[in-house]
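Lay summary. Proteins are chains of building blocks that fold into shapes, and those shapes determine what they do. In this project we predict the shape from the chain. Here is one chain we studied, written as its sequence of building blocks.
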Amino acid sequence: MNRSTLSLIAGTAALAAVTSVAALTAPDAASGSDGATAAARRPVERTTLLCPAPSGSDLAETTYTSFTPVVQGADKDGKAELRAADADSGSGAGSGSGKSDGKSKKGSKPVLTPKAPGSPATGEVSGGDAPALVGTAEGKYAPGWTVQETTEVSVGTGRGLQGVNCTPADTEFWFPGASTATDRTDYVHLTNPDDSAAVVDIELYGKDGALQTTAGEDISVAPHSSEPILLSTLTGDKQDAITVHVNVRSGRVGAAVQALDDKLGGDWLAASTDPAGSLVLPGIPKDATSVRLIAFTPGADDADLKVRLASSSGTITPAGGETLHVKSKMTASLDLGDVTRGDAGSLLLTPSDQSVPVVAALRVVRGKGSQQETAFIPASAPVGARATVADNSTKGTTLSLTAPTAAAKVKVTVSAGSEGGSGGATQTYSLRAGTTQDVTLPSLTGIKGTYALTVETVSGGPVYAARTLAAGGGFTIQTLLDDRGTVAVPHASEDLSVVQ
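And here is the predicted shape, written in a compact code that computers can read:
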């Protein structure tokens, strides 16, 4: 049998095929870890994030906030920037139509230049022609890099606060909770960061199954460009709750749904976590006046789900919303009303019988009458080792932590402000199993501008988290996901041979 040795360089090249690459450097003696431990996981050395085009309103004001947590063992040098995906359409981040022929205009001005790890940096754009952005971070800026896009729209369809975390590119996305109803204007934004075109299929599923679409297949997204696809142009079927499946057949894209309502404001709908038998939807605001659950199962079997609420005192079953039956390849919904009733809460979905993979999201409404505003909470993955959310304000931020199955301890760190001042305050919280806690944040005294929150699992868990940001009469909710700031790297002494 012939054997050939796979070099460590080749192994690293394989890692480069994904979003982040490990820095193959010697262990940092200051970290206090021995060589064997430090060599197992290393900080990534390159990260790419994609931000959708923010708003078509001329009254829109958008802020981008960049933050990298301090990571031991990270490179000493590096660079990061956020530029227009379709840089040939204008002067850069302040202009563009949201579409491009794929040509890149070198030298376009970045919307912001990130600061050193531990300090947020912000950039602003105005008006309705701001394009999608592609962000790249290398070296010390890459591990755990987070970018938040927050837009205020004062009047009109989708008024209020719209927020979304910029995300890595991927090849499949599920969006339960979109709509083609007459009072909704929903776009799925597709952003291609690569040098070759991406080919995408968009499938829509309503209450009775797949919707007939006229132009959902073979959508081409040119290199370094973004395509906003209006869902109502894909089908003549008007339904209030549908599930959007984005399947990338060639290449990769970033994807997010912008859901704009004539009366209830609007926000971004981020993708649900991968289909699973049990799901957690964290951080329902305690003053929510209406909560609606939308779920979908992509497999051949129906799903019967138990619906429970993890409150501050324990897990309860909502009256009148105990279960949800989800038929195969059909979108189901359940109105839960003001389910939190003034208490912190997160929704837990578990199988009543056999475990069938599902995806899910919540539409959350706050306020009454003409003052109602909407946000969305997709089913989320745990925060893992560490997760970060940026663009927090000293008065309008609520951090919600959930431990659905086991007790946990969590460390929360407040960064310095984007405009200076002190930062770095840390506090540890204990979470009981089956509960949700809206935490009192560590000291915010002395912070100027906005700040970032870093959540780390100390023990127990898993832990889920969401941040609610309120400003200008509106609100937006983002779930916190593991930032994938480190990657496992084989030891040089390991046998990396392959059999041929």
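What the prediction tells us: Residues 1-38, 88-107, 496-500 have pLDDT under 50 and may be disordered.
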